[in-house]
Amino acid sequence: MSKENNPSVHIMRSPLGRARGLGAAKHGAAHWWAERATSVALLPLSLYFVVSVLLLKGADHAAMAAYMAEPWNAVLFLLLIATMFYHVSMGLQVVIEDYVRDDAKRLVTLLVVKGGIWVLALAAAVSVLKLAFS
């Protein structure tokens, strides 16, 4: 017997909420799909990164700068950085929302974590751009 037909089970969602299938935050499905899309995008980008590291093993600064001066290398590294930090941001947001119960602590934790992610992503992007244009 389904929950909707069982009179002993009280459903806290409105009929419209049940029809749409969304939770209280109204963005669960989009967030879930974004996490999956970034995971799929990270597979080839991570493989590219590993191959690049192996190719550049023992390279000096000039060789690394020449490698990063190629437009597709800089673009792929920037895509890796953006995708990776966005994926990390979404994953940590879910963990924080699930396990930090106090609303004020949750908000502060989310702001600190997202701020730290932005700083690290910006530092990585600036490093790539500095090498690409040196």
Note the topology.
Elements: H1 15-20, H2 28-55, H3 61-69, H4 71-99, H5 103-132
Instruction: Tell me the strand percentage band.
Output: under 5%
Gap between N and C termini, in Å?
A: 68 Å
Question: Biggest sheet, in brief?
Answer: none
Instruction: Write down the overall geometry.
Output: elongated
* Number of individual domains: 1
CATH topology: 3 helical TM bundles of succinate and fumarate reductases
What structural class do you assign from the helix and strand content?
mainly alpha
In DSSP terms (H or I, runs of 4 or more residues), the helix count works out at 5
CATH superfamily, by name, is Fumarate reductase/succinate dehydrogenase, transmembrane subunit
User: What does the average pLDDT come to?
Assistant: 88
CATH class: Mainly Alpha
Which stretches are low in confidence, meaning pLDDT under 50 for 5 or more residues running?
none
- Measured on Cα atoms, how large is the radius of gyration? 22 Å
Order of helices and strands: HHHHH
Number of strands: 0
Q: Which architecture would the CATH scheme give at its second level?
A: Up-down Bundle
Helix content: over 70%
